[in-house]
TrEMBL record:
<keyword id="KW-0812">Transmembrane</keyword>
<feature type="transmembrane region" description="Helical">
    <location>
        <begin position="104"/>
        <end position="128"/>
    </location>
</feature>
<keyword id="KW-1133">Transmembrane helix</keyword>
<comment type="similarity">
    <text>Belongs to the unc-50 family.</text>
</comment>
<feature type="transmembrane region" description="Helical">
    <location>
        <begin position="74"/>
        <end position="92"/>
    </location>
</feature>
<protein>
    <recommendedName>
        <fullName>UNC-50-like protein</fullName>
    </recommendedName>
</protein>
<dbReference type="InterPro" id="IPR007881">
    <property type="entry name" value="UNC-50"/>
</dbReference>
<keyword id="KW-0472">Membrane</keyword>
<feature type="transmembrane region" description="Helical">
    <location>
        <begin position="218"/>
        <end position="237"/>
    </location>
</feature>
<dbReference type="Pfam" id="PF05216">
    <property type="entry name" value="UNC-50"/>
</dbReference>
<feature type="transmembrane region" description="Helical">
    <location>
        <begin position="184"/>
        <end position="206"/>
    </location>
</feature>
<feature type="transmembrane region" description="Helical">
    <location>
        <begin position="149"/>
        <end position="172"/>
    </location>
</feature>
<dbReference type="GO" id="GO:0000139">
    <property type="term" value="C:Golgi membrane"/>
</dbReference>
């Protein structure tokens, strides 16, 4: 009798388990009565107000459902709704036509959010499993949880840059005059806050997994971001103007 490699059996079991979780997740995508929208809204509120509170949520999900990744699509549905609504405000502010808005929304969803998110989640999923997890630990970081962390980290910047920044759009778009230093200082502060939010929530997400070590490495980008912010102030670079010009060019 030919003996099968136990590692192959374990690997096949992990693949089947992952497939089952993905299938169950998307099967619930259109069953709104099974979704907990109230809990998803609670998560969104605390992502903005006190993201550290969600660490307990991640650990509780692992204890009760044997996985860190969400099995309820409610957060994804609300996230998509917030992305569409803020994109409408963005399009109105920049005076997009309907065709330009449609192109902008497609780029925002499938490139800026999902595409870049898949790249970041896959890179961090590989790095955490390869370098930050003890060799003798059988449990792996789930790719689905890595993507969940990206969505969590993407939500506060989305609200900051696609909602609050637009409220002060005219104020932060000053290219010259006495208010130009004010526009650079406070406008660039929005972008700094958004970037720091993303890094910090990413850190909290992986820190909730007690199997990982050296998690503080995730905070290394923050001093670099602050230095970049100070450099933009010194050089008088208005990030808002640069980014909005890029947005206009990409939908031409």
């Amino acid at each position: 009798m030919v003996k099968r490699d136990p590692s192959l059996i374990s690997s096949q079991s992990d693949i089947n388990s992952a497939y089952h979780k993905i299938h169950r997740y998307f099967r619930r995508l259109f069953k709104f009565e099974q979704m907990d929208f109230q809990f998803a809204l609670w998560q969104m509120f605390y992502l903005l107000a006190a993201p550290q509170k969600l660490t307990k949520v991640f650990r509780a999900r692992k204890n009760f459902k044997s996985q860190y990744a969400r099995d309820d699509p409610a957060f994804l549905i609300l996230f998509a709704g917030a992305l569409c609504l803020t994109s409408i405000g963005f399009a109105l502010t920049l005076d997009y036509s309907f065709l330009q808005f449609t192109k902008f929304l497609v780029i925002e969803i499938f490139i800026d959010c999902i595409g870049i998110g898949v790249v970041i989640a896959t890179a961090l999923w590989y790095i955490t499993n390869k370098f930050l997890k003890p060799k003798n630990m059988p449990q792996d970081v789930e790719w689905g949880f890595a993507f969940d962390i990206h969505l969590n980290a993407f939500f506060p910047p989305l609200i900051l840059l696609h909602f609050f920044l637009l409220i002060f759009y005219n104020l932060f778009m000053q290219e010259s005059g006495t208010s130009q230093p004010f526009a650079v200082f406070y406008g660039n502060a929005f972008w700094l806050a958004a970037a720091v939010y993303y890094v910090y929530i990413t850190f909290l997400g992986y820190n909730s997994m007690q199997i990982l070590k050296h998690i503080n490495l995730f905070l290394i980008p923050i001093p670099t971001l602050i230095c970049i912010y100070l450099l933009t102030l010194f050089r008088g670079i208005n990030i808002s103007i640069s980014v909005f010009d890029m947005y206009r060019q990409r939908i031409v």
